[in-house]
Design goal:
Oligomer: single chain
Largest sheet: 8 strands, antiparallel
Number of strands: 13
Strand order of the largest sheet: 1-2-5-6-8-9-12-13
Low-confidence stretches: none
Strand content: over 45%
Mean pLDDT: 88
Distance between the termini: 42 Å
């Protein structure tokens, strides 16, 4: 819905932050199904329920995002040895995922600065239990806070892209509790 200088979007959406093509460190929102073999990596992106509000002011946009839904990324996992199981561990605080971005496009230089509090789409691998009957290993998805900046500028026939993500050092990385 468009309301003057404001755009509102609600529903399952593919949200991409950042201007990188393959490795995109400022993209905190894209969930991918890597089991899908596709010639274009963008075809692996899954829509996730989100509410996005954008204020358009000429070459500038302020984008606020709330993403209360969590969808597990898909990974191709080879057969595991007998007695070993792998499971996704549900993340806590999925309704608290939110972010804001100031974006500028035009004039030869495109750039943005962003803040995101989300669930990391790259899981940690942890031992959930080790017993005589088997080993249970878990994919643990933790909350992260990311502050990032990116820029892109054309130089002749080439494009120069710069990224600078910073993750909050207080983000837990140890064993799950």
């Amino acid at each position: 819905m468009r309301l003057g200088k404001f755009d509102l979007r609600a529903g399952r959406q593919v949200i991409v932050w950042g201007r990188a093509d393959k490795v995109n460190p400022t993209d905190s929102w894209s969930t991918r199904d890597r089991t899908l073999l596709a010639p274009n990596d963008d075809d692996q992106r899954l829509g996730v329920a989100s509410l996005q509000a954008t204020w358009n002011a000429g070459a500038y946009r302020v984008i606020a995002l709330w993403q209360p839904e969590w969808r597990y990324p898909g990974f191709s996992v080879p057969p595991l040895p007998r007695g070993v199981s792998l499971q996704n561990v549900a993340p806590a605080g999925t309704a608290k995922q939110s972010g804001i971005k100031l974006d500028h496009s035009g004039g030869g230089l495109d750039w943005s600065v962003s803040y995101a509090h989300s669930i990391d789409r790259t899981p940690d691998l942890t031992v959930l239990s080790a017993e005589p009957r088997g080993l249970a290993v878990g994919l643990v998805y933790r909350p992260i806070t990311t502050v990032g900046a990116d820029a892109a500028i054309p130089i002749g026939k080439f494009g120069l892209r710069v990224k600078s993500p910073t993750r909050d050092p207080r983000t837990p990385t140890g064993p799950i509790r």
